[in-house]
């Protein structure tokens, strides 16, 4: 009697989501004290994939970039969300599952509060696709933009997207290798900017071949005196670094300050976490994580630096999302730990440096009953980035649907600690919430049943 119109593909998708949700519910519920709660601070976003914290017109704001091309400002006090910069007409993005183009990142100038300059990383089309790094200065409702670098990208994926300022005041750019297959990578090619970390002085300009260049190559860059190399290169052999951070250092001792950590997404074998240092070679595409892919070349990699941590895809991690070294105060047991996550499952991990090695452990979401009434949010499926607030507290940028042009299902969650006492909080809408939950589950089961019973007929 039921008229369910379902295709096999639809069924597979839903089965996968159900399975993942069950795994997540199992893996992330915890009964011990060391867990986190989530408070939603923004929703209906289109693939929120980077976040920064600053002061704008004397008010604290979070800037949140959407892959579709806008940087929104969220006023911390009033919660008002507005478009700050709109690049939607300029970036290239399509509505499909593996779309790695669009606006991919931004960085605020270290003096942003005074000069209002920020830097964007996006994919744009000028007859062909380029990874474009631009400087934007907003004044009133208009903004001036100038392009610092435009690198032609060979494929549509592995486009990098991280920008950050080091404590040396230089802009670091993490370019993906842009390749379609592991054999065609330019990550080891010293004449190409693909698969590299670049370092630029954006507070100066230069004249190169009689043309203005809106940056200068720092004299301390590692390869400036070797004509075989592009002088912008700071490090090489990277695949597709997705989310890097600069450690602000221990607030008392300064320990760790300035260290740059990155998650480098792997190919078929391993994901890795790297510490980025000058002139280092991170091995791709001769080595993936710790695994040698090209036996004749592995022993010839000069200045190779191995990852501080790797993990196989068989460990249940699909694609790494690098996070910060935690320097906040809400979670004392995370102090000084490197935090990262997994794109596909939304899981969070920490690395604890126990002297010789870095040990991984999973962080768990608290049971709702342990969380304050405003921190009952349940995470979405995909983790896009881990944000860091002004005082070092953390945020998760997530979505349920990465087809961001048609669906705005992204949200930002603030990590908050569980309640201190053991008695559970009674929240006004709690019983309604449970009821809605029950309703959703029943609808789910109904649908599933409906799929089961009709699929044989299709
Ligand atoms: C890429 O390299 C692998 C060995 O690492 C080889 O098996 C494969 O055939 C190569 N693919 C192409 C397209 O050259
Ligand atoms: C190893 O790398 C060299 C240099 O890039 C390349 O010529 C060779 O084809 C690679 N071998 C394999 C098996 O991919
Ligand atoms: C990870 O993968 C590598 C290469 O495939 C393999 O040598 C290693 O044993 C694996 N490690 C674990 C813990 O599964
Ligand atoms: C980190 O490692 C140290 C040294 O092994 C250990 O004493 C400490 O308990 C670990 N911390 C966490 C949070 O796992
Ligand atoms: C928990 O207790 C500690 C000290 O007893 C206090 O500093 C902290 O603010 C409390 N946290 C919450 C969420 O109540
Ligand atoms: C459930 O929600 C309705 C409408 O928002 C509200 O009037 C009612 O008091 C809620 N019930 C409980 C038990 O919180």
From TrEMBL:
Where does the Glucose/Sorbosone dehydrogenase domain lie? 54-359
Q: What Gene3D superfamilies does the entry give?
A: TolB, C-terminal domain (2.120.10.30)
The record, for PANTHER family, names: ALDOSE SUGAR DEHYDROGENASE YLII, HEDGEHOG-INTERACTING PROTEIN
Task: Identify this protein by name.
Answer: Glucose/Sorbosone dehydrogenase domain-containing protein
Recorded source organism is Potamilus streckersoni
